[in-house]
Amino acid sequence: MLRKPRKIWDPSIWASWKPFGLGEQYPNNYWEGVRAVWVNRDKLPYAWNILNRGVCDGCSLGTTGMKDWTLDGLHLCNVRMRLLRLNTMPAFDPKILADVAKLSAQSSTQLRNMGRLPYPMRRDRGDKGFRHISWDEALDCIASRIRQTTPDRTYYYLTSRGTVNETYYAAQKAARAMGTNNVDNAARICHSPSTSALKTTLGVAATTCSYKDWIGTDLLVFIGSNVANNQPVTVKYLHWAKKAGTKIVVINTYREPGMERYWVPSIPESAVFGTKFAEDFFLVNIGGDMAFLHGTLKHIIANGWNDKYFTDNYTNGFDDFKAFLETQSWEELERLSGATREQMYAFAKMVGEADKAVFVWSMGITQHSNGEDNVRAIINLALTKGFVGREGCGLMPIRGHSGVQGGAEMGCYATVFPGGKPVNSENAALMSELWGFEVTDTKGLITSEAIEAAAQGNLDVLFSVGGNFTEVLPDPGFVKNALKKVPLRVHMDIVCSSQMLLEPGETVILLPATTRYEVPGGVTETNTERRVIFSPEIPGPRIGEARPEWEVFLELAARVRPEIADKLRYENLSALRQEIAKVIPLYAGIQHLKQQGDQFQYGGKHLCFGWNFPTADGKAQFSVLSPPTNDLPEGYFRVATRRGKQFNSMVQERKDAITGAKREAILMNSFDIEQFGLKDGDRVILKNDSGEYQGKVYSAPIQPGNLQVHWPEGNVLLDKNERSPIAGIPDYNALVRLEKAVGIA
User: N or C, which terminus of the chain has less Cβ within 10 Å?
Assistant: First the structure.
């Protein structure tokens, strides 16, 4: 049994004795509530119904209304309140897009704040801007271009922005009906390395535990993950975990203030005095996580803290893994990790003394060229103690967006079919039989490959639902030039983005999308803990001619392939969910979700429960891994890209309320600042072969030789060719030279 939280107030976990943290730097969540009321004042009843009845379209906890399945009480965060206006804002006057030159100086935030996209619009090469067209003209134009080319020269992409399971499923089926596996979604640049590593080592491809396992476990470890910033609803879980005696530890390149302490507005004790979260921070170099974990494992094994019964009976490869660890010297592990042998021992002792532990990680682990191996290193650590498949234990790649988990599971991936089945001849034959039309067995282009194909003139049609490639991918200049070479670009979204305004190769078509709350009959999403949740349609105002993405994809495919149109049309979404349940056995039960509150957790509370691993031999697999040699050349720094006050690439404020850092801030160790003869606020230039970035340095608790800049601004420094070997995830880190900006204020 997990320990229960203590109800009485406990000064030992308070962040400050100052009431309400007066004078401290932290988000004013009450002000966020006031702000949300003000900006949505023209649609307050509708806004309230969305918050009170809809499933959150923000981070991937999946609160239904303002409740969830982990804790009782009110669950509402500032991320969701900031996103609310996207669902309530009116449409903009389409005449605004008649001359896009007038919008060239607008930021993405300004474009987004213009309002909702109301009608299909078209711009041809040579036109100053867009004109209003009918849905028939738009779909006929797109279908005609697709028929005129070959399927391998078309590409379809879906963002994670509130995207739901039904849209993912319909889009990938439509793409395959049109003859291609060139369909991908935002999950690839988030947790595709996690999916791959978990599948090959444990036989599962998702988080193995539930959020309830955080509260009362012995040890809760966050590695390259900042939930206080990206999943702020979880700070309630962290507060109650502390009240239950859980030790919280963070391994990261920066001592994130929000992971150290937070004032949780809906808990009176924390609202007044705050809550101290992490008891220990272990700072590592950018890319030094694996070396730190290897040092930890050396200590665990040397001291006999590992669970020999578990490794002997339920795993393979432990002896090989142990033998390889012995070849790694402490000097090498200290140099690569940036941490000391004593610090590794301190963490190892915590792990060794714990009977139960949960490991949580995010893009600080995955978005590296060795992302898959980073995840395997965490899995190795958990397997050493059998921290999987039982209460209070687990491996959790925490999701940042409400729609991401279902994206890959619905098969909206260039490399897998629905249910995670690899693209090969056997599975293509199976899908052909299930769907009643031929499905190709050729792996599709992932997003980075599709942009390269566009740059080389090998892509004729690009259909993007949401997203903004010019902001989320490395080397934005290259991306912009590539997009401008595509003869037909189709952008379906709820608002205007900068990539829509790039010059047409020949034609650009804009399609207005509904939000999840506007879809007739309601939809479903899958959250981080594998919970499939029904989000009902919310009655209220509707925008122009906006249509659900799932419907548009299937109608487009029916026009491209009229001979199989009957295989691509559904009476309603209930019928579509019936098919999902048949095609994806894991999702059996989705067909029964019909009203607010309906949900189920596929796989149950714990995957691999009772140490039953769905692998070929029923055992988990240790991985022999070599830490990356990330030694710094003379005069260089490692730089990582970080998030501020934003949702994905949607920047909401110039200043991050948690760190106090503005968008141009370059976080730097105080020793490095002194060595360069700099002071806080000095402007510098970061340079490498990919580009250069100007910003202002500020001292921060970060390892010497390491820097952090905001994303997406720092994408100019990223090498577009650096990707992980299996998932193809871009590396959002780089090596840079630093120069003091002369003559620039």
Answer: C
